[in-house]
Amino acid sequence: MQRKEITFIEALLVIIPLTIAVRASNNMLMTTLPLVVKYLFNFNEEEVGIISALTSLSTFIGSGIINSRLRGDIRKIVFRISALIYAFLLPLFYLVSPITVWILSGIAGVVLGILMPNIITYAGLLKDRKQRERVLSIYTLALSASLVIGPAIESWILDYFNLLFVFLFFAPFSILTGIMAFFVEFPNENGNGTKVKVLSNPGFITAVINILTYNIVFSILLAFGGIYAKSTFNVSYSTVTLLFSSFFLTSFLSRLYLSIRPAEKLYYHIVFAISVTTVGLILISVLPPLLTFFTIALLLLGIPHGLTYPLSVISISRTFKPEERNAANSTFFAVMMLIGIITPTVAGFVIQHIGFRLTLAFIIPIIIILLALLGRYVKYVDKVE
């Protein structure tokens, strides 16, 4: 069956509410879960890292193993079933125990691994490159908007209710996901058996190295930043989520900029993002441990968070055909989850022995090395018309 061509407006009407619903609720899950298992279930740092890694591992399975192999109508069916499962999942976290938290986290990860790559692929269906990249930028802007809205709502909730009640208040977001999933279109796939060469594509390599320069930092902040703020500065749960909200505010503004002025040359934006990341890490790891410095660092680190992901998805959209993008996006999302598996697990062990600040200090030379590697591949992406 021939897929109808979607318009710019149609794409936005589906992508904006769906992306906000999925990402706001999922981010709440990822930031609240470490606090729940640490302070309600008395997990240590290594166990916090492992459960964060479990969620990322199951997302990797959903994206890299399940979704990347599905084609056509089967993928559409699995996508919609996953969205319906997600609609009923969040309220179950209110009843979570030290045992069931592992099961529910695994299910949530698999579902997310199926939902997110298909939303990215839908965002890239427009034929016109400039319109497509603008939609992709607006998609990432909706991600950032959800990451501002979500923590702000959560901060208000935690002023009046305990941690577990947050899952009930965010249930409408998961229900909206189940509804909006039925409006998502899928690309035509001819099914000729031709294998997509993903890993050797310079656009894919650029996307992966670029996301590595930031997601290593982001994975550590997501899993341990709230715990560090509470234990070091003795702030409330509400203040912890408010700090994350300020981080996502500058991320939102960065993506707003890309939506208004889409990036033509990716390299200059990437260099800027890595430079800001380095400054933010120095503020946390080198300067005295003051709440003011930590807050400024989060505001700065929100900028590369806003830039890095959209630059990666644009890199993929420029160098893959529409029928190839599901495989590319699924593999890319799986790689992001691998980062989320390895980083919290290793970081949990390292932080327990040398501390949060020193761990971040060791990240600085790693991202500088990655910047040097990027120069070899991004030039091919910037040549695409």
Automatic annotation (TrEMBL):
The record's section on InterPro entries has: MFS (IPR011701), MFS_dom (IPR020846), MFS_Exporter (IPR052714), MFS_trans_sf (IPR036259)
Parts of the chain that traverse the membrane = 48-66, 78-96, 102-126, 138-157, 163-184, 204-229, 235-254, 266-284, 290-311, 332-352, 358-378
Q: Which domain of life is it from?
A: Archaea
Q: Name one GO molecular function term.
A: transmembrane transporter activity
* Domain annotation Major facilitator superfamily (MFS) profile: ranges: 166-385
What are the record keywords, sorted?
Membrane, Transmembrane, Transmembrane helix
| Designated name of the protein | MFS transporter
Q: Which organism is it from?
A: Sulfurisphaera javensis
